Records
---
Amino acid sequence: MVGRCAQGGLTPTDIVVGINPGSTYGDAKRWLPERFAEVTERLCRTIHTSPGQQVSVVIFGAKGEEHLGQEIAARLSSRSLVLSGATTIRELMAAVKRCSLLLTNDTGPMHIASAFKVPVVAVFGPTDWRTTSPFGGAHAIVREPVDCAPCLLRECPIDHRCMTRVTVDQVYEAATKQLTPLGVRGEGLGETPSPPHASRLTPYGALDGVTVFLDRDGTLNYDPGYLKIAADLKLLAGVGPALARLKKVGAKLVVVTNQSGVGRGILTLKDLEAIHARLQGLLEQEDVALDAIYFCPHHPDDGCRCRKPNVGMVERAVSELQLDFRRFYLIGDHARDIQLAHRVGAKSVLLTPAPVDAQSLEGLKAEKAMPDAMAKSMAEAVDWIFIDAMKSAKGRDERERRERQES
Ligand SMILES: [Zn+2]
């Protein structure tokens, strides 16, 4: 493979953009070749290279797709290597691994890339992005929500709108987002320096049935003390991507927040509504849809059932959202969040920016607020939940297997 790359003019320092414009399944899964070429052309111009370094394009494809590869190569001004129909599976894997980014349709190489943690931008048309999207964090799916998709047809009986409506701009934008956080700009080789999050190894749907309760102030957003004005709400670093990882594998996200500022007359319900609209808006920009936000507006002296650590908000969520209470997690930054978790049988993660000293630990024990885990960021908290949920699922499978054997 190394030999073949050298033949094609690729050097070890090249930044390699891979494209896989074909699909053996049928034409319906193919985004338009001229658009693949245009996005690639634009990317090659965008990617920053060090002196002596260059961007090269490798075009993948199956046997019979050689013409497609050549057609795209002819449209590119950067150096390109057409491997369509010319690789064994091992060679394909090695070449995909060498890429800093793979632009692809919904295909096998897409999954190979995600297994190697190569950032992927996949254009989905007739197939179901929910069931066959690559697992792991380093990918973006671009698709158009048309009525007829997913149809799973090999050939489109109408105008192929699921693909023709996907624009060059959309794919280009998704691709630049994949590149930048991975530090490809100016860094050279196609290694991915991003941290190996547990979710990359977590299959789609792995957290179906799991609910993660989230505190709001100090957990999702900076806590200025009685946040009043929606525009002042700012998400804490890393919250969006971390929650997106949970959503992607099926977890439900439910915010439970004490807002006694309302009962104290500091802000109105209308202010609170605006704040929550902004919270949802900011999270939606990060591909996170909250399943619900519950708040307690009461004064601590009101003795209501909903103020944490009381269980009223969780009870309401259970009945309104039909949650499986055997699979609850809670992330919060306050002892009363953890106390609530204990009361509803949720596993809990306490967010704490600094390590907890022995004295505070004793304090938590005394308050019956010992969490199952502590994390210094939302990303860490989510990693812990992934690992715990996978372990629990494995334990459950084994228990069920034993029970079947015994019966
Ligand atoms: Zn209340």
---
Amino acid sequence: MRAMVLARVGAPLVLEERPDPEPGPGQVLIRVRACAVCRTDLHVFDGDLPDIRTPLIPGHEIVGEVVTVASGSPLEPGQRVGVPWLGHTCGRCDYCASGHENLCENARFTGYQIDGGFAEMTVADDRFCFPIGDAYSDVEAAPLLCAGLIGHRCLSMTEDARRLGIYGFGAAAHIVAQVAKWQGRDIYAFTRPDDASARDFARQLGATWAGGSDETPPAELDAAIIFAPVGTLVPAALRAVRPGGVVVCGGIHMSDIPSFPYRILWGERVLRSVANLTRRDAEDFLSLAPRVPVKTHTTRYPLAEANDALEDLRHGRLSGAAVLVMD
Ligand SMILES: [Zn+2]
Ligand SMILES: [Zn+2]
């Protein structure tokens, strides 16, 4: 198979020919059809996350076809599945036992501790593969697997907020905005101050208001989700939400948060993060998305151009989601 491999943190991915991976017990072999590119891939690439083992095949928004299964597997050869960021949990720790497997002490993540989908073939734990329905093509479905799942987990943490701020209008935001709009919420989109095209994109998706992250929204927000990995947005969002409102940090990594006066947190505002996903999140969102229906906006790149996809994502040069295609 061909794979785009991270040989060393910070070095461009290298196209390699490798033998197909061998599935172990409980694993399926998957022919990858498409794999979306997530900001977390950039954090892996840049070494922002701890203990990155190299060589590594990144990619955790995988859509592919099951080739072989272990005996007793719930999956079948030929079935189309998605493989998300959460790739393995222990099933025994207190978090797993209490419905918080996203926080499992022994979790392993696709494209981080487990080789991922920037390749023509991959193997995955069959308990962490999810059937993908017919409503989406391979490319359309790929961004649902992380931007969609974790974005939706963030949205659910805002409870019944009506006026919802979204900071950073990329892949996750463009999916969350559609679900939020469908739920009857008003979207206030915050983008990089110089990114007028992202604001146009937000308005096309039904945002009530779109402005730069340095602007004050025209109404007090009930909640805000921060997808951009920028710590200075935390006090900005706290200033924009009403007393009792919540600010959700949706990214796995963020630059340091500057100190801020207690009064912008006071008034029972809540500041929280969202980490990873549970299998329940995956099942819930993958059944919800076609009912909205969520339409994903994608930019395709051949597998061999994964480095271009990462750099375009880094510099905000695409709208919606970047997706690698294997043919
Ligand atoms: Zn991701
Ligand atoms: Zn566990």
